[in-house]
């Protein structure tokens, strides 16, 4: 059931677990998954309080939304306490940064007892994406850290990340799990954000992780099947008779029918 819900997620909004006002606002948004962040967005002296707030927030069910908690990475002084707190919480999933092996992913998922969203943020993580995906419920790209670890300037766009992004999608798809694109940092660049969402969908991502409420509606729209897509999928299914055949000027076969059925299932969800 949770895996099906993840495949339908279009927008994953990071909210600092130390910011009570931001959490209250996020509850009112249409984000499919709210990730209460105890890692990068939280100052060191606020880590303990943020962890407590995240657990308290997860206790309050929010209709129509999944709640995840991003804990601090393995090897940090907060990791073990974060993991124990999330394991005892009502969060739907745990988000782990900088995952670099399937063994680490399996260990965390087992210790926590909750579905794991594994963040791929390093070259080692990219190269082992399939193994990590086999132990996780989903893969989530950490594009900022990944670009930095590859020596790619933040001003040079995503062309240098293309291979890594496709490798992560490939690893996730081979394991049958959802895969989510990374964040877009330039909050005032609405056109750039829209273009990156469209690129992410073209790469095969199920949805996009977000850092600001203003990004939710655009991500939801772009990662949802549009009316024209839904209508075409219905026509294709109705027209299909089995085997290879012509449909509206192109050739289709069973694979295209299955693709259309999956699109309609996502639209229904």
List the main descriptive attributes of the protein structure presented here.
single chain, 269 residues, alpha/beta, TIM Barrel, 2 domains, 8-stranded parallel beta barrel, 13 helices
Major β-sheet profile: 8 strands, parallel, barrel
Share in β-strands: 15-25%
Superfamily (CATH H level) name of the largest domain: Phosphoenolpyruvate-binding domains
Following the backbone from N to C, one meets helices and strands in this order, namely HEHEHEHEHEHHEHHEHEHHEEH
What is this structure's SSE topology?
Elements (H helix, E strand, L loop, with lengths): L1 H6 L3 E6 L3 H7 L6 E5 L9 H13 L6 E5 L8 H9 L5 E4 L5 H11 L3 E5 L2 H5 L1 H5 L4 E4 L1 H8 L11 H14 L2 E4 L8 H14 L3 E4 L5 H7 L4 H13 L5 E3 L2 E3 L1 H15 L1
Parallel strand pairs: 1-2, 1-8, 2-3, 3-4, 4-5, 5-6, 6-7, 7-8
Antiparallel strand pairs: 9-10
Helix pairs in contact: 12-13
Brief sketch in words of this structure:
The protein is an alpha/beta fold. The protein is 47% helix and 16% strand. The strands form 2 sheets. The protein has an 8-stranded parallel barrel, surrounded by 7 helices.
């Amino acid at each position: 059931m949770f895996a099906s819900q993840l495949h339908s997620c279009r927008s994953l909004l990071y909210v600092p677990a130390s910011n009570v006002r931001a959490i209250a606002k996020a509850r009112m948004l249409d984000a499919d998954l709210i990730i209460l962040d105890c890692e990068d967005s939280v100052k060191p002296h606020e880590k303990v309080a943020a962890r407590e707030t995240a657990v308290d927030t997860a206790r309050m069910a929010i209709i129509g939304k999944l709640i995840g908690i991003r804990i601090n990475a393995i090897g940090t002084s907060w990791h073990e306490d974060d993991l124990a707190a999330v394991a005892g919480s009502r969060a739907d999933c745990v988000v782990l940064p900088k995952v670099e092996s399937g063994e680490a992913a399996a260990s965390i998922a087992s210790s926590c007892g909750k579905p794991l969203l594994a963040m791929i943020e390093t070259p080692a993580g990219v190269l082992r994406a399939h193994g990590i995906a086999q132990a996780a419920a989903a893969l989530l790209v950490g594009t900022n850290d990944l670009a930095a670890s590859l020596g790619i300037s933040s001003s040079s766009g995503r062309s240098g990340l293309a291979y890594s992004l496709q490798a992560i999608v490939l690893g996730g798809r081979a394991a049958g799990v959802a895969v989510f694109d990374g964040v877009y940092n330039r909050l005032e660049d609405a056109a750039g954000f829209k273009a990156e969402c469209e690129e992410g969908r073209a790469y095969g991502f199920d949805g996009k992780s977000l850092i600001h409420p203003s990004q939710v509606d655009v991500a939801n729209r772009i990662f949802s099947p549009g009316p024209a897509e839904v209508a075409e999928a219905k026509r294709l299914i109705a027209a299909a008779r089995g085997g290879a055949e012509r449909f509206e000027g192109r050739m289709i076969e069973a694979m295209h029918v299955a693709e259309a059925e999956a699109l309609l299932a996502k639209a229904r969800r």
